[in-house]
Design goal:
33% of the residues lie in helices and 24% in strands. It contains ten helices and eight strands. It has helices at residues 11-17, 23-32, 49-58, 70-80, 120-130, 154-162, 175-180, 224-231, 235-243, 250-262, and strands at 39-43, 62-67, 88-92, 106-112, 131-147, 193-201, 218-222, 270-283. Strands 1, 2, 3, 4, 5, 6, 7 and 8 form an eight-stranded mixed β-sheet that branches.
Length: 285
Amino acid sequence: MAEFSSSDYDTRNYSEARPRYPVEFFELLRSYHVGRRDLLVDVGCGPGSFSLELKQTLGFGKLEGTDLSARMIERANTEISGKKVENVKFSVHAAEDLDWLSANSVDMITAAQCSHWLDFPAFQKAAHRVLRPQGTLAIWGYVDPVIIECPQADSFLEEFQYSISSLGPYWENPGRDKLRTLLRCQVIDRDSYSDIVQATYRIRSAAEAHCNVRPLVMVKKMTLLDFEHYVKSWSAYSTWKSQNPKSSDLCKEFLRRLRLKSGLDSSSTFTVAWNSVYKFAKKRI
């Protein structure tokens, strides 16, 4: 997570390269939430584009977006500067630091693609204090892309991301490992929260493709250039680049080998999909 605060990190590429959440997921979260929609707090908001979409789509009156990275918050505030955006504020705070909010004042707290970085017991305790009774806590994430049309490239993608000779040593842990296990260790406290709904989804698992709860299905159509931009948005790639400034570009070599392995070329359009998880809960009355 520290890499996202680096002055060298490309926050614009982060916004543009990452996949978007499907409309169906917003509808799922909308139908789960009960009661008023006055205040939404989105922690780990990054450059803020998704936070704004969430506020508008779910119909919240006010948005407070926070992130530990001053670079991300600077980007978020730049995006809304001069625009007719009402009742939106972005500020630098750790997700676990919610002391600046009054008790029982928040209707929904979201942590999108950031829960794996958090001190989760501290976070859900802080969230419980500020959520109103039956207010919603929602966390979710996605990880480990595969190219749907090219299952033969799965092992190669795995090797590029996690082998010792590639990006493996440059992921920040234990956060990355928590996300790879789809937040299995982040258990919502049943004494503090009720109506817990959770779903995991693994792209190549036939068993999980037919789970009882509607999963978060993350897919995006890409070209090789799009995929290159996506890889370059990874914190591990940014860390590798900063620590190996004189080395030939690891990403370029990866894409060269991917072309050979998959048969894709610069004109190809393909479907990228991710394993995913979400967990929703309501503060107990």
